[in-house]
Write a structure and sequence with these properties.
Blueprint (H helix, E strand, L loop, with lengths): L2 H25 L5 H8 L9 H20 L11 H17 L4 H10 L3 H23 L3
Helix pairs in contact: 2-3, 5-6
Length: 140
């Protein structure tokens, strides 16, 4: 096992957990990305949240930093842009329907032993496993 296949994911997981804990301590709210994204674009009914804008800006800045200094494989996307946008909208609808996304339910909700988050995480992980099974055994 190489350094990058073990330590980088471990460091990433620790940073995600640490940032979620710090966000909860400083703001009294969980760090759910879908909720922060909605508040950054003013979709929560209370106007634009500059905290949400800053949080999303930090995610983009961190990604740009990592892309500049770390070596990642080149990813080729063969799907049409329209299909990608449609998929993004469906995911966004699902996160609103499910009252959160993987970061809100999977990271923060499970840590708080929230029954709603446990059910949501079991559902989306099960659907993900079935999707992988279908895509691997019934391609095309």
């Amino acid at each position: 096992m190489s350094y990058s296949s073990f330590l980088l994911p471990l460091a990433g997981g620790l940073l995600i957990g640490l940032s979620a804990a710090i966000y909860l301590l400083l703001n009294g709210r969980i760090a759910g990305i879908s909720g922060l994204a909605a508040s950054a674009f003013g979709l929560t009914g209370s106007g634009i949240s500059w905290l949400g804008v800053g949080f999303l800006g930090g995610i983009l800045a961190g990604a740009a930093f990592a892309a500049s200094f770390l070596r990642f494989p080149i990813i080729e996307v063969s799907s049409s842009p329209l299909l990608l946008v449609a998929g993004g909208l469906i995911v966004g609808f699902g996160t609103r329907l499910g009252s959160g996304c993987t970061s809100g339910h999977g990271v923060c909700g499970l840590a708080r032993l929230s029954p709603r988050s446990i059910v949501a995480t079991v559902v989306f992980m099960s659907v993900a496993a079935v999707t992988v099974l279908i895509m691997r055994h019934f391609p095309g």
